[in-house]
């Protein structure tokens, strides 16, 4: 009597950076056997996130996630990384959740499992045929993490492994405020000395952080670091961080960014932005969808014809890459990009502008294989700390494709403008 060989699940590699692919294969299944591949993550916020796909084994009793079609689940079709990018909160979870890594010195632990049959719920109550734990890292071995508290600036500086010197980046997030480190940690893993800048935080940073001097000082902390190439420092911004990047590149006389990457932002802010932090704000233009989620994209529309109501993009003197989604419900990025192009054309600097616009893509364009968040909780950084649910936009599959493509092109842009030669990526 022959002994039945249990299914074998392999995930290669089991330890990788978050923007690296893995291969998930199940062997030793009966031919034409229906199975469910499942990914489970327990977040730092103590919520379970999951993704799953339905497969049927081939004549050899094998399923390969990269080569075979998912017939159902949180993703369908041939999607090598669907078990990551289609993650969503487990049914019954709190509303408006967003998955973000705050402690970058530890990995995201994702358990990949295979279950018999095509199932859609109750995974944690069932026993898998096989399971493999995997680690997804933002911070590669050898990357230094240094807390910055000098000259009034707050943030975290990530320096790649090795003696350097390295190209540098000032990394600025959006209007939600606080300190987010994961993108800078990943950029350092790709060879850039990256400062994740804190602003819009309680205390002294709440009122003082929108002065131009704060951001100029942060830029110069990077530039003056002994492991940084002083004339190879760029700026990367998302949302409000993009507005700040535009302003610094156009108006600052004290810093000269080598290039700027601007994700999901606009230039529709007057010259008072750096004086009193004022952004255009007309509450009457806030819209709500059928779920009562807030839509803020119209607040700064229509694009003003008065140049004084916009950052003067004609003054830009460094290469700029705009990364936008055409379903951005938070910021009018497509309209802004058209006006930016017109302004730069009139200023004779259009040759410095590159624009990527992705269909059915929302506001929160993250590193590859990050889950898509169409709407999430958002705490408005005012004295009242009002908590709302904001509609960001996008559809999961095209948004995921945009994240993967744009990250590759962002790294290529940075390589071209900040590096005199190819810089090695840190190895896991």
TrEMBL record:
<dbReference type="GO" id="GO:0006631">
    <property type="term" value="P:fatty acid metabolic process"/>
</dbReference>
<feature type="active site" description="Charge relay system">
    <location>
        <position position="363"/>
    </location>
</feature>
<dbReference type="InterPro" id="IPR016662">
    <property type="entry name" value="Acyl-CoA_thioEstase_long-chain"/>
</dbReference>
<dbReference type="GO" id="GO:0006637">
    <property type="term" value="P:acyl-CoA metabolic process"/>
</dbReference>
<protein>
    <submittedName>
        <fullName>Bile acid-CoA:amino acid N-acyltransferase-like</fullName>
    </submittedName>
</protein>
<dbReference type="GO" id="GO:0047617">
    <property type="term" value="F:fatty acyl-CoA hydrolase activity"/>
</dbReference>
<dbReference type="InterPro" id="IPR014940">
    <property type="entry name" value="BAAT_C"/>
</dbReference>
<feature type="active site" description="Charge relay system">
    <location>
        <position position="328"/>
    </location>
</feature>
<comment type="similarity">
    <text>Belongs to the C/M/P thioester hydrolase family.</text>
</comment>
<dbReference type="InterPro" id="IPR042490">
    <property type="entry name" value="Thio_Ohase/BAAT_N"/>
</dbReference>
<dbReference type="InterPro" id="IPR029058">
    <property type="entry name" value="AB_hydrolase_fold"/>
</dbReference>
<feature type="domain" description="Acyl-CoA thioester hydrolase/bile acid-CoA amino acid N-acetyltransferase">
    <location>
        <begin position="19"/>
        <end position="150"/>
    </location>
</feature>
<dbReference type="Pfam" id="PF04775">
    <property type="entry name" value="Bile_Hydr_Trans"/>
</dbReference>
<feature type="domain" description="BAAT/Acyl-CoA thioester hydrolase C-terminal">
    <location>
        <begin position="211"/>
        <end position="419"/>
    </location>
</feature>
<feature type="active site" description="Charge relay system">
    <location>
        <position position="239"/>
    </location>
</feature>
<dbReference type="InterPro" id="IPR006862">
    <property type="entry name" value="Thio_Ohase/aa_AcTrfase"/>
</dbReference>
<dbReference type="Pfam" id="PF08840">
    <property type="entry name" value="BAAT_C"/>
</dbReference>
């Amino acid at each position: 009597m022959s002994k039945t060989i249990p299914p074998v699940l392999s995930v290669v590699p089991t330890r990788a950076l978050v923007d690296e692919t893995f291969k998930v294969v199940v062997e030793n299944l009966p031919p034409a056997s229906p199975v469910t591949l499942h990914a489970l993550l327990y977040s730092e916020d103590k919520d379970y996130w999951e993704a799953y796909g339905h497969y049927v084994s081939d004549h050899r009793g094998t399923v390969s996630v990269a080569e075979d079609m998912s017939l159902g689940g949180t993703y369908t079709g041939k999607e090598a990384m669907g078990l990551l990018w289609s993650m969503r909160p487990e049914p019954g979870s709190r509303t408006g959740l967003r998955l973000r890594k705050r402690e970058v010195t530890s990995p995201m632990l994702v358990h990949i499992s295979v279950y018999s049959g095509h199932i859609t719920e109750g995974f944690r109550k069932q026993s898998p045929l096989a399971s493999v734990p995997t680690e997804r890292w933002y911070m590669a071995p050898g990357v230094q993490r240094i807390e910055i508290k000098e000259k009034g600036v707050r943030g975290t500086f990530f320096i790649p492994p090795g003696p350097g010197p390295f190209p540098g980046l000032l990394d600025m997030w959006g209007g939600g405020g606080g300190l987010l480190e994961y993108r800078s940690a990943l950029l350092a893993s790709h060879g850039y000395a990256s400062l994740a800048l804190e602003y819009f935080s309680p205390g002294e940073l709440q009122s003082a952080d929108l002065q131009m001097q704060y951001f100029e000082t942060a830029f110069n902390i990077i530039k003056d670091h002994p492991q940084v190439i002083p004339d190879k420092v760029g700026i990367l911004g998302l949302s409000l961080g993009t507005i700040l990047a535009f302003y610094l590149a156009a108006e600052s006389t004290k810093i000269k960014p080598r290039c700027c990457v601007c994700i999901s932002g606009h230039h529709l802010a007057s010259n008072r932005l750096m004086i009193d932090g004022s952004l255009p704000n007309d509450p009457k233009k806030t819209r709500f969808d059928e779920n009562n989620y807030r839509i803020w994209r119209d607040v700064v529309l229509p694009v003003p014809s008065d140049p004084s109501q916009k950052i003067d993009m004609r003054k830009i003197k460094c290469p700029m890459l705009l990364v936008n989604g055409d379903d951005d419900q938070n910021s009018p990025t497509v309209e802004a990009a058209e006006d930016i192009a017109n302004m730069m054309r009139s200023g004779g600097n259009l040759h410095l502008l590159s624009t990527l616009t992705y269909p059915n893509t929302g506001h929160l364009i993250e590193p590859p294989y990050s889950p898509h968040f169409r709407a999430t909780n958002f705490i408005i950084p005012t004295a009242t700390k009002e908590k709302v649910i904001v509609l960001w936009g996008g559809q999961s599959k095209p948004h995921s494709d945009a994240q993967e493509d744009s990250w590759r092109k962002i790294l290529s842009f940075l390589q071209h403008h900040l590096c005199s030669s190819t810089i090695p990526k840190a190895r896991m």
